[in-house]
Specification:
The complex is a heterodimer of chains A (438) and B (419).
Chain A: H1 6-23, H2 33-52, H3 60-69, H4 72-85, H5 93-117, H6 120-125, H7 133-158, H8 163-167, H9 170-193, H10 197-239, H11 246-260, H12 265-277, H13 287-290, H14 298-304, H15 307-315, H16 324-330, H17 351-366, H18 377-387, H19 394-407
Helix pairs in contact in A: 1-5, 1-7, 2-3, 2-4, 3-4, 3-5, 3-9, 4-5, 5-7, 7-9, 9-10, 11-12, 11-17, 11-19, 12-16, 15-16, 16-17, 17-18
Chain B: H1 3-6, H2 10-35, H3 40-55, H4 68-78, E1 82-83, E2 86-87, H5 92-106, H6 108-112, H7 119-142, H8 151-180, H9 184-216, H10 220-258, H11 266-280, H12 285-296, H13 319-335, H14 340-347, H15 358-373, H16 380-390, H17 398-413
Antiparallel strand pairs in B: 1-2
Helix pairs in contact in B: 2-5, 2-7, 2-8, 3-4, 3-5, 3-10, 4-5, 4-7, 4-9, 5-7, 7-8, 8-9, 9-10, 11-12, 11-15, 11-17, 12-14, 12-15, 13-14, 15-16
The chains are: A mainly alpha (438), B mainly alpha (419).
GO molecular function (chain A): hydrolase activity
InterPro entries (chain A): Cyclic_di-GMP/3'3'-cGAMP_PDE (IPR052020), HD/PDEase_dom (IPR003607), HD_domain (IPR006674), HD_GYP_dom (IPR037522), HDIG_dom (IPR006675)
Pfam family, one (chain A): HD_5
Chain lengths: 438, 419
Amino acid sequence: MEAVPARARAYVACVAVAALLCLLPLPSVRTSWWELALLAALSAGCERAAARWRFAGTFHPVLLAGVFLLPPPAAALVALPGALLSPVERRPRGLRRLWRAAQLAVSVWAAARVHWAMGGRDAVVASDFPYALAPAGVAVLVLCLVLSMLDGGILVLAERMPARRAWHGLFLRSLGPVAVHGLAGLMMAVLWRSPYGPVAALLVLLPMYVSWWVFAQYHRERAAHQATIRALVQAVDIKDEYTRGHSERVGQASMMIARELGMDDDRTEVLRFAGILHDVGKLGVPTRLLRKDGPLTPEERRVIELHPEYGHEMVRGISFLGEARAAVLHHHERLDGSGYPYGLMGGQIPESARVVAVADAFDAMTSTRSYRRARPVGAALEELEKCAGSQFDPRMVTALARALARHGWHPAVTADETDGTGVPHPRPTVAGRHGVRR
Amino acid sequence: MSASRTSRRPPPLLALVHGCALLLALGALGCVLWTGLEERGTALAFGVLITVGELNRRSGPHVREAAPLGAAGALSYALLGENAGAPTHHGAAQVVTVVLAASLVGSVPHVGRGQGPTADQLARRVLTVGFAAVCFQPLYNQGTFTRWDGPAYALLLLALLSLTALCDAVLAAALAHSRTRWPFGPLLRDELRALLGIGSAVVATGAVMALAVAVAGLWALPVFSVPLLLTQLSVRRYAAVRSTYRQTIASLARATEIAGYTPAGHARRVAALSREVGRELGMSRPELTVLEYAALMHDIGQLSLVDPVPAGATAVLPLAEQRRIALLGGAVVRQTGVDAAVAVVVERQADPCREQPPAARIVRAVNAYEEKARDAGPGGPLTALEELRLGTAGDYAPEVVEALARVLSRDCLTSPVTG
């Protein structure tokens, strides 16, 4: 854990002082203290539940209901217990807690101040729709704005991020969720002031909570799913230790090419999976053949060349892979029609397969195999350019060269290479990797 | 509940439920045609809300509440007593008519794609909304609830909605029971458990919408449907990732088949049959998922073998070798990120049955049955069952073998729909 820079500490202290200034008029504020206590307890409870279930972000509906119901200093106080008491995972814990509390107090105060000035409180009491939406909307905007400004500041000072990157998209990304929470908070505030009282207002939280819970489940399931995809690859690694890490690296190179070609995020992700899974069909090739040292007979070569079809057979049932399935089937086709399994030519070969073919060849050349040492990145690129047009799509080769020039080649060493699960991994991971980097 | 009586003769319950729903719908329609619509603006607003909810419906085998927004809108219209402080006058008949009309309109695009709501879903919707409206509207319009004001009124609505949700769960379980003849108890337990999740959100939203319209008028509908649409969206994404996850697990399971270690379709057949047996033994939905995943991946340990076991028949191998393969399989499964319970089941599939968890007993027995029965020709299943019964003393749990026999005899009589 690196130390927090002094200027970041000073920044946090300044925001904390600002928060104290916001809370200062509290003793003179006329408000109903039990309402304040109830909202603060609710907010703290939601924070704790969120931390236990590893949700990201803050449960804003309660805070926003406070903004719409209470005078500004009281609304700022609602945010404090939740932020101060909620567990923090990363060190330094005290500083992080203080930062969260001060940041929330200041932004909630600002939002409540604007809401108050626009007469939003009377609109809530009189449930004056649609006018009540206007001050609420402005308050949500202010909350988002102040939060993202303060967040950007800490990113610049503590993480030394460039200012433009720190603020870029911070506001727009937080606006959507906070606006939805704002609508729920407004409904909560209106019901709170209605004859039905806080009981009815609490009911608003239930659907929000369920939505949140489902969202967390979604993330958990997605992580598990990714692990399963990786397990598919590891099943290949069990049979053929020499390609260890090859799949992940081809995935990374395919992703770099896709980004360089300007494909959108979804397609880039699909191409990453295409790279990861391209050799999954090797599961169907007898282990003895894969591990054979020395030259293969034509018969044996034909058996190994069946692996794209085996691979396609395996993944064709996974619908989200989309065009990655075609890439698995066709990644050994060549532009001049001399590849396998179908001998497709030029444009007949799916784009995804042309991407993976280049990524596959690049990684094969830059990593050590049983029969030869790794080549440096520059030599591999030269070789690719030589074969562009006959074997590879020149567009993909150029894109790879540009991406490598811009970002370099830093193949990620996956954590699962050092697992302790008892599956036998007799041979060590690829040696001589340092020769690969430029 | 008439569940035990209906388990022998399924059609009467279905016919009864559908008939009741149809009668209720026709009666309500006739009533509305006779008296005309009260407060058309409110009816239209709720109709639009329900239609929007139905348009966002998603269907699939593992979806609990296909259209939560539609359901919540329908319930809140059934319990609507005031609109911006002024009492409403619509009766139960109007509620049923509006909800049914809006549901039908909203499902038109889905019918076009062949994924419309089933007769069961429509009947449930009509009956539950009818139940809530009949409980509430006549009493409200007579002024019985005037003494219930403030928070007590909110709690009254909540209690009514909870009662409705309970009835809906019983109805859903009974319908599923009479269609599939799976045991009623676990089905009801699954329905009740689902009430805690998306069901509670629907109930709370129904109550909140009824109260919010009473306070703030019809503006409350768009304001509060946005958060619920968000819920619907996360539920949908969750369902999507779950289904792709299943597909991936199934592909991983096929790895052994493509590698030539096991015959084609073996893992899928063992999984489908294990699921049926698990259901017969009264396992809950999460337990069934663990069982299914474990059954799909039970042979994955064979990937670590350099040479395949002849025909993939592990049940005839020496016990020590079976255990070694099971342990290797468990190690692979642990890397897949599935529930650790799945790995435990895979690891212990070759243990003596007294020490096994129930899911491992099922996988072991079903796997042995599948291997024995598959090449044995027409008389194979019976011979295989007989062998399992004889081997029951140490290897295969008697209750599992009996459940397997029941499932098999049922599937021979009815159509072989599994999975």
